[in-house]
Amino acid sequence: MAEEKKLRDISWKEFKALPLTEKGAYFQGDPPHTLIAQQFTRAKLEELCTLATRIKRINKRREGANFLKTLLSDKRAMLYFAQPSSRTYLSHNAACQILGLDTMDVRDSSTSSEVKGESPEDSVRTFSSYADMIIMRHPKGGFAERVAWMMAHTGREVPVLNAGSGSDQHPTQALLDIYTLARSFEDIGGIDGKHVVFVGDLQRGRTVRSLAWMLTLYKDMTLYFVAPEPLQIGQDILDLLDAAGTKYVVTDDFASIMPIADAIYMTRIQDEWDAAGESSTIDTSSFRIGAEHMDIIKDTTAIMHPLPRRQEISTEIDNDPRAVYWRQMRNGMWIRAALILTTFGRQDEANQYYDDYKPGT
Ligand code: NCD
User: pTM for the complete prediction?
Assistant: First the structure.
């Protein structure tokens, strides 16, 4: 990671034009922001995964849970979700509760002063006056970055955590996906060298875009993008993979890839993005997984999904040990708690408690 740079020292125009891999250096400072997948290093991912597991273990006992609640009891978070959300919203809210952080929320812009003509920037600045952190989801790509830049030019810069922006980024989902992969492959050599297969709406799925990049931080990976042609992954992501030297295959033949997959990351068709409803006419029937595929895939394959699902994963396989999507969702709460704690620089206190009391698994 390049040396730390300050958002307040750069104009919005210059910042916006930077390549993603150069933007990360602007988010490491005080306070650190979490905005794009490209700001993470492998060391940081590993640190967060370790801390997530420690928080989870500490939380198992009442004394531990009570201790965790003291860690951020002097802080308040604003959850600003201007886009539908249930699990990401609840998961962040629960992560805050674990750490004793009070939360407030605005979940519907039609109940905010935006209906009186206030700009979204002013709205967020207003919300930030009552909070020490903003966790936000917004339909406009890049808006979370814009908010962080704006904050840096006020006298009171609070950390911004991007909980999903447009169809471009979902860094905290990518974190929980990495955590899930790391845990799933714990006994088979970790994430390095694995074949990760992305299936479905790769064009508009922001979780795939963020996770694909994070996987470039691992050695000898092969990524497979399996989708009907109009829903295939964007060239911008393939360019990032090329630049990182990560191998990939773009195909519409799911059946031939299934047997070699170490992880299968299913996604739903995101037709809320196309007003004309064109994507409902695309044949997606071969981009699903069900009981008939369980003999074809490996015994160790992790079947994942950011959820919500539609028909792309049959409920028949929900209880197969390889179906990790429910665990994946719960992992989100732990890794987000780790991220929030680290954002406030209080991770050493949790690590110290863990070392002192060594809570079991
Ligand atoms: C995803 C999202 O919002 O991008 N959901 C989530 O955060 N768990 C995926 C989706 O909506 O399909």
Answer: 0.96
Query: What are residue 135's phi and psi, to 5 degrees?
Result: -110, 115
Q: Cα of 273 to ligand 1 centre, how many Å?
A: 13
Q: Which atom of ligand 1 is nearest to the CA of 268?
A: 12
pLDDT in tens, the chain (361 residues): 557 799 999 999 999 999 999 999 999 988 999 999 999 999 999 999 999 999 999 999 999 999 999 999 999 999 999 998 999 999 999 999 999 999 999 987 776 777 788 888 888 898 899 999 999 999 999 999 999 999 999 989 999 999 999 989 999 999 999 999 999 999 999 999 999 999 999 999 999 999 999 999 999 999 999 999 999 999 999 999 999 999 999 999 999 999 999 999 999 999 888 877 777 788 889 999 999 999 999 999 999 999 999 999 999 999 999 999 999 999 999 999 999 999 999 999 999 999 999 887 6
Domains 7-170+332-357 and 171-270+283-329 share a fold: yes
Is 142 in contact with 87 (CB distance < 8 Å)? no
Give the pair of three-digit tokens for residue 234.
């964007």
In 18-61, which ranges are continuous DSSP H helix? 20-23, 42-59
Q: Is the dihedral of CA 172, 258, 323, 287 positive or negative?
A: positive
Q: Is the omega angle on the peptide bond into residue 308 within 30 degrees of 0, that is, cis?
A: yes
Q: Kindly report each contact of residues 242-247 with a partner whose C-beta sits within 8 Å and lies 24 or more positions away, as own/partner.
A: 243/21, 244/213, 244/216, 245/216, 246/215, 246/216, 246/221, 247/221, 247/222, 247/223
- Asked about 87 being catalytic, the answer comes back as yes
Residue with CA closest to ligand 1 atom 8 = 306
β-pairing verdict for 222-226 and 195-199: parallel
171-270+283-329: CATH topology: Rossmann fold (3.40.50)
Q: Among this protein's residues, is 293 annotated catalytic?
A: no
All structural domains of the chain with their residue ranges: 7-170+332-357, 171-270+283-329
Q: Could you confirm whether domain 7-170+332-357 is CATH 3.40.50.1370?
A: yes
Token output for 146: 């814009």
